[in-house]
Design brief:
- The complex is a heterodimer of chains A (92) and B (193).
- Chain A has 92 residues and is mainly α.
- Chain A has 2 domains: 61 residues; 30 residues.
- Chain A has 4 helices and no strands.
- The termini of chain B are far apart.
- With 193 residues, chain B is mostly helical.
- Chain B has 2 domains: 75 residues, Rna Polymerase Sigma Factor, Chain: A; 107 residues, Winged helix-like DNA-binding domain superfamily/Winged helix DNA-binding domain (Arc Repressor Mutant, subunit A, Orthogonal Bundle), CATH 1.10.10.
- Chain B contains 9 helices and no strands.
- In chain B, helix 2 crosses helix 3, helix 4 packs parallel to helix 8 and helix 8 crosses helix 9.
- The chains are: A mainly alpha (92), B mainly alpha (193).
- Chains A and B meet through helix 1, helix 3 and helix 4 of A and helix 2, helix 3, helix 6, helix 7 and helix 9 of B.
Chain lengths: 92, 193
């Protein structure tokens, strides 16, 4: 495997989505290429930063009011569904 | 506690996080999550055949998002959150495999993600953040695994290129600051001399 081929499949390797044979080729290449090992580490780090960035963005913090309003709404819906479900069973 | 509360509600924060990245504003995200859970409640029996409740909920979220009546659908299909719009133009530029920059901040990563076209951003969110397999992401989006892989490759490449450009801009700005400080210092010395 060449470095350019490794760079094409490096992310799929991290995703664990490569065929077993390709996985082995990647591992063999990494054993001999320090440059690609560095690139793989950089991609792993970027992935962690991406997760953190998505999780810490201010707009993704759900307000407590919304969560509470939603729970109340869903409980009311569930009650109605049980009520109508009971009525349908009675009619049957 | 009902089966719905036990199975679906623990994923509420994750759903909201994804919705916030898929919609233009907080109200859109709240509407999307609410409609998703209402539909999930109505189809709770389907959950029995599912191995992962969160993937099931995300699939429902995409069904809701795809409804013609959903107001966030009018949010331009090819519009990136950050304002860069034409993804073909960007991918044409990123024909090489950019090296991954290491010294980037979370804010810079977040900014680069926002600049991606929505269809590339969403596969990255599903795969890298929500940990869906390629197959699960394909099911959720209603596309083939091959298309998921293609979008992931393009999205990641663009993300790395955006970050590389950010790092380079930062480097240039820093060089300019040093040059200005140096010039100012020399100017001051000359004035004294």
């Amino acid at each position: 495997m060449q470095c350019c081929e490794f760079r094409e499949v490096a992310c799929s390797f991290l995703d664990d989505e490569l065929l077993v044979e390709t996985n082995h080729e990647v591992i063999r290449h990494l054993e001999t290429c320090a440059d690609c090992r560095r690139e793989l580490t950089a991609r792993q780090e970027l992935r962690l930063k991406l997760r953190a960035a998505v999780a810490h963005a201010p707009e993704v913090i759900m307000s407590k009011e919304f969560a509470e309003r939603l729970r109340t709404h869903l409980r009311a819906r569930a009650r109605w569904r049980r009520f109508f479900g009971g009525l349908i069973k009675l009619n049957l | 506690m009902t089966a719905f509360e036990a199975e679906a509600m623990p994923h509420l924060k994750r759903l909201f996080r994804l919705a916030a990245w898929l919609t233009p504003d907080r109200i859109g995200a709240e509407e999307l999550v609410q409609e998703t859970l209402v539909l999930a409640l109505a189809s709770i029996k389907q959950l029995e055949g599912e191995s992962d409740a969160c993937v099931w909920l995300i699939r429902i979220m995409y069904q809701v998002k795809g409804k013609p009546s959903a107001r966030w659908r009018s949010w331009g299909k090819h519009r990136a959150i950050g304002g860069i719009s034409d993804d073909r133009k960007i991918t044409a530029v990123v024909s090489f495999e950019p090296r991954t920059p290491q010294d980037v901040t979370e804010e810079e990563v977040s900014g680069a993600l926002r600049c991606l076209p929505p269809e590339l951003r969403e596969v990255i969110l599903l795969s890298n953040v929500e940990d869906l397999s390629y197959k699960e992401a394909a099911d959720v989006l209603g596309i083939t695994v091959g298309v998921v892989m293609m979008r992931l490759a393009r999205g990641r490449k663009m993300l790395r290129a955006n970050l590389r450009a950010t790092v380079d801009r930062r480097g240039n700005a820093s060089d300019e600051r040093i040059a200005r400080a140096f010039t100012a210092e020399r100017g001051g010395t000359n004035a004294v001399l």
